[in-house]
Fold these 3 entries.
Entry 1:
Amino acid sequence: MKTLLRTVASVVMVLALIGGMSLLTACGKGPAKPEAALDTPEHHYLTGIRLSNKEDWDGAMRSFQRAVDLDPKFAPGYAGMGLVHGAKGEYKEAYKAIDKAEDLQKSPVIVAEVMKIRVLSMERRKDWVEDAEDAYKTAMKRDPQNAELHFYMGRAYRMGLEFDKSADQFKTVLDLNRDFTGEADKEWHVVQKIQRAAPGTKIGKQIAIIEKISRADVAALFIQELNIDRLFEKRGKTFDPSFKSPGKEEFKADSIVAMEPATDIATHPLKPDIDTVIQLGVRGLEPSPDHKFEPSKPLLKAEYAVMLEDIMIRITGDTKLATQFFGQKSPYPDVRPDMYYFNAAMVLGSRGILEADKVTGEFGGGQAVSGADALLAIRMFKEALKI
């Protein structure tokens, strides 16, 4: 009986050892085996970058994951995973993956530092620009001629509202004349517009980096950068657009509470600016009949032209501007004389405040307005009216 028990115990121990070895093997499994000629870490990393440029973050993560499955020590794969985590707002996981990439990469590779700069530009935590600069300086010691490094540091400076430093980085990319030249050229021209516009307020600088500004943004620009409330008071006439009955003072029942001009801006951070432009009655920035301002709605160039034309008429007192170009032929192939913004486009275009496309000659009324373009137009507006 004792012999039998010892035999059973021995069998159990052997099975346990086999099970344990199987578990260790499963946990510490080696690299995945390639299944095709292009099933390589490098190919999957490049695919992940291409998908991330299209903001297909799930697809990018699958590619980066496959890269590290094939080679658990492939640093760019972990850096790419960090980028995806950052894009999804998972910053703790992002920096963890990037740190692993930094530990694995060997000089002169600097992919971890580049991805860290990109993720910091997404998160924008306290002192993030300084952290990005630290990563940039580290990478510069190993690969100072890396165009990608200079490009994303240029973007970081732009997002950090340091436009002069941003322009210098993009100029460096163009001087290197390697990778990212097309992207850097576009970014450089945007920064140049911002520099020319020279926004004088913090909110103006913040709006300058927005690719497509909203109705709330333009309201803030009109108040903060153009100071239309003061200009209307000084050179034009302000008015209260609310209805007033003639004669005796209007009767108001105690039980009736007037509805707010706009009911969708109560918690909006730019509410004071929006309230002011509503009170001033700027054409094109009025609330709808159902009391909606739609603060997040993207601003179109045609709408912007109408607003600027109205402000110009109000400041100068020249009401003839409203019909100045009626009956004339349109110089813009995309703007017919019967379109609602034709006269505004002509008024602003003839004064160089809003420019047409230099290649096609189109005004682009249906295009969204960028913060840089909006600010530059305000700068040209001020110069045209000498204000």
Entry 2:
Amino acid sequence: MPNILNQRIAAALGTTLIVCLALAPATLAADVTDVGFFDQVAMSNVPRFVAAGRQLKAYGDDLNRQFTARVRGVKSPEVQSRIAQEFKDKMTAKQRELIGPLTQRAQIAIASVASTRNLSVIVDKQIVIYGGQDITQNVIDLFNGIGDPVPPVNAPGPSSIGFVDTQQINQIPKIKQAYDDFAKFQNDQKSAFEQKMRAAKTDADRQQVAKDFQKAMEDKRKQIIDPLAEQTKNVIANVARKRGLLLVIDRQSLIYGGTDVTADVVNGLK
């Protein structure tokens, strides 16, 4: 099942977007009592989602056969690209048709259970190590019920849990430029690496070539990526303190509620 509510800053940045503001675990657990977590993997195994997934796969397999037949003999890259986009749009539309209603039903069930349990934030179970209330089975039971889940009357209240949309952060010019520069350096180094490996005559030579490549990548990362990663963490922490937040997580790990501080972080990084 796709993430039913919503990428973190690329792994190369190494930025941890779960920011605890110098709180001991016991204190954090005691303060964050309105946080629940939900297992999206468990929901993906619910029969309705499994059946929809099978239908989507069968449709996709058929589309692939049709696409292969359509592009056979087509030499123009422009025409190939246009045909590919056509089939991609068909697949997207089918996914929306099959998965969309189930996703909406799941979202309403989550919101309903959260409201009933007085929870202002629901996060993905995968990021939870300690604490929180597991609402997975409650949501699945409501999702599988005969009638439609009823959305809560009120929106979730203010939360001490913040979230950041790292996809937006990735588009900040200086961060995007850093990615582009690193990618170009990586491609150049990879080409040089492949040439040296072909010229290497012994295992020891090949090991040294690989070692040099890894060091070059690490040094470049420390030069242009790590400083931005550190700055990003500092800005997020400062925003969290100003907003009185106990925790800031990546939006991709958020399922319901939370305080959006993306704009504040983006402004702080410009």
Entry 3:
Amino acid sequence: MPSLWRNSALAALLIAVRPPAAAQTPGRVTYDVRVIMPRARAETVVVARGRISEPEEAKLRLELVSDAARLDALLGVVSQGDTVELSGGFNRRLRAGRSARGLPLWEVDDYHRSVRLPWGGTARLYPFGPPQSAQSGPPVWLAITVTRDRVAGDTRPLESVVVFDSTVHVTMEAIVHPRRAAVRVTLLRGDSSSAPKLLDMVTDGPSKLVTFVLGRNQSTTLDVALRSPGLTLDPADSTLARDADVVCLRVTDPDPSHDGAAHVRCGRVNNVARTLPLSDGDTIVTTFSWPVPR
């Protein structure tokens, strides 16, 4: 495991303001992000570009990795009329050399920043410190333009990321806490399986009684609920909202002859099948996905 050094160096956040966009009804927010590096003769080049469109209450998670540094950031906005407050939590690591045993040493920095700008304005972020500073990391910065559009009913994020330089690794993704999810559940018993049930469920809303039919004479009714995950114990995971798009399926047997114990299976809203063992050897297979826009 690499040794870690912690210092108090903070990245600089500078603002280049464009003319404000017209005020609009809250809807979707779009982040246009450019990752920029200098080249010879004072020129610059865009090494990656991303466009993330998401509901206004969602967040943008960004990861930037090179040979000597890593940045993890979670950005969000709060509308204030014709202006918007862009804020974020950042975790930064800079390679600081090697120990006497040859292990890599890292400087680690956690910090928060916020700035107010007009809708359509651009924030310039130096994640590893401003150029030519004493504690500067790689000469790279981010230009983030935030705009807003009036859209009703569409809750799913749209993501597009293009990397032009293989020396850096850049990912950007929308982080949305699901208020609803399409839950597909199937009951397995031995070599038999029920027909899949597709449920449109509200997170932390009321449960539903679901009857699964296996063959002509076998049926089982279960109480199914969709819940938010518990609080994470890892401060970094909490700061970067790594479990923001995670939901949990809670299944209980309402039959009083059973013990009434709840069985829980959590997962991201990514349409990946997961199994949940129940009592009596039964198994629930479930997938979580985004519901159809209303």
